Amino acid sequence: MLQSIRERAQGWLAWVIIILISIPFALWGINRYFGGGGEVAIASVNGTDITLRQWQRTYQQQRQRLLAVLGGDVDDELLKQQILDGLIEHLLLLQAAQSMGLAISDVQLAAYIQAQPLFQKDGHFDRQRYEQVLSAQGMTPGMFEQQLYQRLLIQQMRLGITESALLTPSEAERMARLKGQRRTVSLLVVGAKPFLEGLEIQEDAIKRYYETHEDAFTLPEQVQVQYIELSVENLMGQVPPPDEATLKRLYEESKADFVVPEARRARHILIPIEGDEAKAKALAEELLQRLKKGEDFAALAKAYSKDPGSARLGGDLGYFSRGVMDKAFEEAVFSMKKGEIRLVRTPFGFHIVQVTDIRPPEVKPFEKVKEDLIQRYRRREAERMFLDKAEELANLVYEHPDTLEPAAEALELPIKVSDFFTPKGGEGIASNPKVVEAAFSRDVLEEGYNSEPIEIAPDHLLVLRVLEHRPPALQPLVEVHETIEKRLKQEKAAEKARALGEKILERLKSGEDPEAVARDQGLSWEPPMTLGREDTRVHPDLLKTAFRLPKPKDGPTYGGLSYPSGDYAVIRLEKVEEGSPEDLTDEEREALRRDLGEAAFAAFVKGLRQAADVKVYPDRF
Q1: Of 12, 299, 368, 506, which one's alpha carbon is 20 to 30 angstroms from that of 278?
Q2: 2-169+591-620 and 221-249+366-471 in the same fold
Q3: In Å, what is the CA distance from 485 to each residue of 82, 106, 477?
Q4: Whole-angstrom Cα distance, residue 274 to residue 349?
C-alpha cells in the first residue's frame, strides 16, 4: 500500500504540476495574490477580491492553450465566464480548506517537488533545473510553491470527500440499472444537402443579414510591435567559460548543493487492520517469527502482503530518502541496520520491514558536476550583467522615447517584430497580458512612445513600441458576400430538412408504418444499433435524445433532433434493457463509487457557492 500510495501521489501530483506550469492561475496566496491593493476588482468572494489583472492573465494563458490544442476560433464569451467561474471556485475551495484547518507540511511539499522527474537530473532533484523550468514559465520558486501548496490543500480536501463515499447495495442496484441501461434504436436521417440544390438567396436578404450582423464582419483593432528582450538566459551565452580554478572554488562553495541524501532500500509485508486489530497483529507476529527462522521474505510477501504495488515484487519498495514514506515507517527504516527485520505499526496496518541496503549520503565528485558548475557560473555572471544592463535599458528607452535603435545597438540586442494582435492578445509575446496592456496603452499607442521595461519574468525584460496600428474595420460587403450567401443557404436547407423530419415524426407518432413512411420520402432506416450511455459511435446530442425518450410499451417510441450540420435525425426507440448489479465488475463498482464521490464533491462546491458572498462586476471586464 505504501508503494501504491506513493505512486498514486506522484501520479496526480505530476498532473497538478503540469497544470500549474502550463496554465498557471497564478493564485499566489489569498492575500498576496487576491485582493491586490489598488487594482480593479472584477469579483469578490467573501470579501476577497479577484482582480482584472488576475483574470486577464489566466484568460490569455487558457486561450493560447486552447488555440494550440484545438486550432481555429475560440468562443471568447464562454471562455471568459469559465475563467471567472474557475477563479471563484478555486478561491472558495481554498477558503474552505483553510477554515477546516487543513495543512500541507513543508516536508511534504519539498518531498513532492523533489520526486518529480521534471525537476530531476540523473534521477535526483536538481535545484538549478528546478529554477530554470520555473523561470522559463515566468515563475519564481516562491510563487510556484505557494500555488502548489494551494492545489495540494484543495486536493487533500477533495480526496477526503470523494474517498469517503460508500456504495450501498440499493445505490449499486439503482445506478447499475441507470448506467448499464442499453437502448436499441434505428435512425432515419433527412439530409440537408439535397435541399441546397436550386436554392437562391435574394440580394436584399444578404444585405439585410450583413447590416444586422456587422459585429460578425468587423475586424478587431490590431497592432504590430517592435520589441527588444533582455534576459539572463540570453546573457549566459555572452559569458566566457570559467577556468578550472574558478570552477573548483565554486565547487567548494557549493558542495552542500551536490550532496545526495542518504537513501535506504527496504521491503515489507503489509497486514492491514480490517476490523480486528488483534488478529492482524497476531498474523504479523507469526510471519515475523517465520522470517527469523529463515523462511523466504519474497515468497511470504507475495503470499500475504496486501500492498498491491509491492507484493508482486516480493515486498520491495526500492530506494527512498527521508520525507517520502509514512513517518512511523520512515523512522523505523532509518533507525535499522542492514538486514534487520522489525514489526512496525502505521495507519495502514502492521508491516514486517527489512532493510536490504543502505546508501550513505555522498557528495557528487567534481568531474560529475563540472558541467553544472559551468552553467551555474554563467548564470551567476549573467545575473550580475543583467542588473547593469536592465538599468541601462531603462535609461536608453527613456532618453530616446521614439525609437528602440539606440538601446538595441548599445546592448547588442536584435529588434524583433511581432505578428499583429488584438486587445485580447495573440501568439508569442502577445500571449502575455502585460505586453498587450502596454501595447494598447495611451502613451504607446496614441503618443507613439516606447513602453517602459516590462517584466516578463524576474530575469526577463521586454521593451516595445507600436510599428503599425489597424483600427477596427467593417469588412466590405463584397468581401463577405459569398460567406453570407453560403451561410443563409445552409440555414434554409437545415430548416427544410427539419420541417420534413418533423412531418415524418408526426406520421410515425400517429401510427403509420415506419417503412412505408420512409419509402414515401425516398429514404431508408439505418440498421438498429444498441447504445450504452457512454457510447461514442453516435453524436452526443443523439445519444442524449435517445436516452430521454419514453420506454416503448405497445410499440416503438419516436423522437428527433437537428444535427449541427443541418441534417435531421428521426429516432425510433425499439427496446430498453436495464443494467443489472450482478453484471458489475469490481472495476465498474469502483467507478460507480467514484461517481458518487464526485457527485458529493460537486454538491459540496455548489453548497459553498450558494452560502458564499460572491459579487461579480461584469462592466469591469
Answers
A1: 299
A2: no
A3: 33, 63, 11
A4: 9
